[in-house]
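== Sequence and structure of one protein ==
=== Format: two labelled lines per protein ===
==== Data for this protein ====
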Amino acid sequence: MASGSRTTWTVIDRAHDALRVAVAAVGEDNWQLPTPCSEWTVTQVLQHAAGDQLGFAAAITGEPGPTENPFAPSGHIDGSPVELAESTMAAAARAWDRIDPAAETAPVPVPPHALPPAVGAGACALDAAVHAWDIAVAVGAPSPLDAEQAARLHETALLIVEPLRQYGAYAAALDPQPADDAVAALLRYLGRDPGWSR
């Protein structure tokens, strides 16, 4: 399902597509279901993901970021969840289209607040993609991540995640398992149980 705003960054487009598919799979009565983010509902995970996409956009453009703290989502969305997802992904896509891949750094909303462009784009994509997985599994939908995408995002995660754990952005890593595929390996590194279910 490839629609919505496109960028010059394939990694971001694929992550946005994953989030788009996950949000589309949420039934009207499923927004309050629990998720792998143990304290958050589906609604709150979407609010967090949307806020983070706006945060990435604002870091680049200087335009307003999220009006709500992405790490303390209210659980209430005014309007359509789909429109919230689409508008924030579009803002991030427009912002990343300003970034020259050959630039030395790109601004990002998390420490160290500047990363090589490919790593920064990967960080933006990682956030959207992993929360797409959270939403999908919460409502019993198929994982929107594939092995190739997960392997690419894992490369980025290895570069950025460890310093961010101290801020609560990521849970402690889970021990890898011999049978893990690329998706499971990524999820465990980000502190998620690939076999999670309600």
In short: The radius of gyration is 15 Å. The chain has a mean pLDDT of 95.
